[in-house]
């Protein structure tokens, strides 16, 4: 035992390798658990000084594992998250594409992702309302992106753009992984509120972990003042209703709250939600 130097600690029985990382050193513990199925101990393979190559092999494996950890720790916390939000027609996709193209111009590797729910202009491109497009991956979720893109190719990426981010239920988890663990920059563009000015998707969830948040405004189509809200022109009350200028328009606060369509839709939605809540309460009361 005197010939074995740190960071190894040996115990009897079958080997299980555990890693412990601290600020001072990363220690590899080779811990042995003895399992007895028999009155006499069953022969176990264990790390010993004989033959000599056993220790050498363990040292080599430990070195590889330590280098992997060091490489991963080099990425920890080195990424960034930037959020672009605002109502429809405020230029979110345009701003996103502008940033992505700037990164490409300086030699950084980028990829663009959008929700597969967005089929307004093209299935495999992010397209602005002005008709400017950029190739992208249209996906139902974000966490599958590295596998779909290819892990080797993903590892080489510097930056990932996400358009129509309000449609991704795993937005928070993905941004945390990409920025905090993988050390990449994420630029997220999406609506922060729906047509009833309620929170939309997970955009607001990632603001606490974002490096920057840009809130854009549009122009009210009624008076030309700054438009902060998205007005739905139809009486359809679904939260997710894909559409463009045929369905939505940006408006200021005055022309949002005074719009009869909004008033009627709000009453209808809030009324149905109240009815569902009352039904639920009645059902629970009946069960008690």
Describe this protein's structure.
- Pfam families: TK (PF00265).
- Keywords: ATP-binding, DNA synthesis, Kinase, Metal-binding, Nucleotide-binding, Transferase, Zinc.
- It catalyses: thymidine + ATP = dTMP + ADP + H(+).
- The protein is an alpha/beta fold.
- Among the domains are: 14-73, no CATH class; 80-220, Rossmann fold, CATH 3.40.50.300.
- The protein contains seven helices and 14 strands.
- The chain has helices spanning 52-73, 92-105, 145-149, 151-155, 171-181, 253-257, 260-287; strands at residues 14-21, 26-33, 80-85, 110-115, 125-127, 133-135, 137-139, 159-163, 185-190, 212-215, 218-219, 226-227, 229-232, 248-251.
- The protein has a six-stranded parallel sheet with strand order 7-4-8-9-3-10. Strands 1-2 form a two-stranded antiparallel ribbon.
- The relative contact order is 0.12.
List the helices and strands and how they pair.
Elements: E1 14-21, E2 26-33, H1 52-73, E3 80-85, H2 92-105, E4 110-115, E5 125-127, E6 133-135, E7 137-139, H3 145-149, H4 151-155, E8 159-163, H5 171-181, E9 185-190, E10 212-215, E11 218-219, E12 226-227, E13 229-232, E14 248-251, H6 253-257, H7 260-287
Parallel strand pairs: 3-9, 3-10, 4-7, 4-8, 8-9
Antiparallel strand pairs: 1-2, 5-6, 11-12, 13-14
What is the compact description of this entry?
This protein has helices spanning 52-73, 92-105, 145-149, 151-155, 171-181, 253-257, 260-287; strands spanning 14-21, 26-33, 80-85, 110-115, 125-127, 133-135, 137-139, 159-163, 185-190, 212-215, 218-219, 226-227, 229-232, 248-251. By secondary structure, it is an alpha/beta fold. InterPro entries: P-loop_NTPase, Thymidine_kinase, Thymidine_kinase_CS.
